[in-house]
Amino acid sequence: MFYLFYFAIIILIPLWAQMKVKSTFARYSRVPSSTYRRGAEVAREILNANGLYQVGIEEQQGQLSDHYDPKTKMVRLSSEIYHGHSLAAAAVAAHECGHAIQDSDGYAFLRIRHALVPVANLGSNISWVLIMIGILVHLSGMLLLGIIFMAAAVLFQLITLPVELNASNRAMNQVVSLGLIRNVEERETRKVLNAAALTYVAAAAVAVLELLRLVLIYTGMNRNNNN
Q1: What are the φ and ψ backbone dihedral angles of 61, each rounded to 5 degrees?
Q2: How far apart are CA 225 and CA 138, in angstroms?
Q3: Could you count the other beta carbons within 10 Å of the beta carbon of residue 26?
Q4: What does each of the 227 residues of the chain score in pLDDT, given as a tens digit?
Q5: Nearest alpha carbon to residue 165 among 104, 113, 116, 211
Q6: At 77, is the secondary structure helix, strand, or coil?
Q7: What is the C-alpha to C-alpha distance for residues 182 and 162, in angstroms, rounded to an integer?
Q8: Most CB contacts within 10 A, which of 60, 114, 167, 209?
Q9: Any idea which GO molecular function terms this record carries (predicted)?
Q10: Contact 70/18 with Cβ under 8 angstroms?
Q11: CA-CA distances (angstroms) from residue 18 to 15, 128, 181?
Q12: What's the confidence (pLDDT) of residue 38?
């Protein structure tokens, strides 16, 4: 019964976060900003205001596929955001510019996250193989190794939280100080940014819960092997 409840939680939390993001984005993508600037124009104005003339802006396919690429110094916006005149478009474009500003400022958590990418990718790819082998053949050492690899991936997700929250705070400061939204639109814009942050919070919470569950399995297996 406990495991049914547990798995229901780790499935429902991400689903709820995704539904919240999609519903909030859908709602405010229908609300035009008072300045009626396209997402690409919002991004360009923020980047220029911070002296980031070298950072480019590209349109790309996919919904909510927006991101900043630190290697190519490129803000990539989905078509809906790139061409959109809505509060949602302004919020998302500003958020990605927040990452570009972090990169320019040498924001510590962003640097740590970049450094952890290869370790996190390795941990994500190999951890469950080691964990399943360890559980199936009752090798606590193999399970522990899998947990260590998984912990690296979890650490990456935890480091992502301050990076994303800080980018949203920077985004709000930029759109307000540059007059890209009006004061009466701040609440709605923040709702879009907060909803997006929920996905990262949910992912981190689920990852930590799963890591703790595996640690309990390991301690139980280790105890049984010593008896």
Answers
A1: -75, 160
A2: 9
A3: 10
A4: 666 777 677 788 888 888 989 999 999 999 999 999 999 999 999 999 999 999 999 999 888 899 999 999 999 999 999 999 999 999 999 999 999 999 999 999 999 999 999 989 888 889 989 999 988 888 888 999 999 999 999 999 999 999 999 999 999 999 999 999 998 999 999 999 999 888 899 989 999 989 998 998 898 887 776 66
A5: 113
A6: strand
A7: 26
A8: 167
A9: peptidase activity
A10: no
A11: 5, 24, 26
A12: 97
Answer for the pair 83, 60: CB distance below 8 angstroms, yes or no. Answer: no
Counting runs of H as helices and runs of E as strands, what totals does the chain give? 7, 3
How far apart, in whole angstroms, are the C-alpha atoms of residue 82 and residue 38?
6
Q: What pLDDT sits at residue 60?
A: 93
Residue with tokens 């899998």: 146
Domain boundaries, the chain: 2-226
Q: How far is CA 63 from CA 21, 48, 59, 77, 194, in A?
A: 12, 26, 11, 9, 18
Task: Classify residue 187 as exposed, middle or buried by CB count within 10 Å of its CB (0-12, 13-18, 19+).
Answer: exposed
Residues labelled as active-site residues: 96
pLDDT at 226: 67
Contact of 147 with 133, CB cutoff 8 Å: no
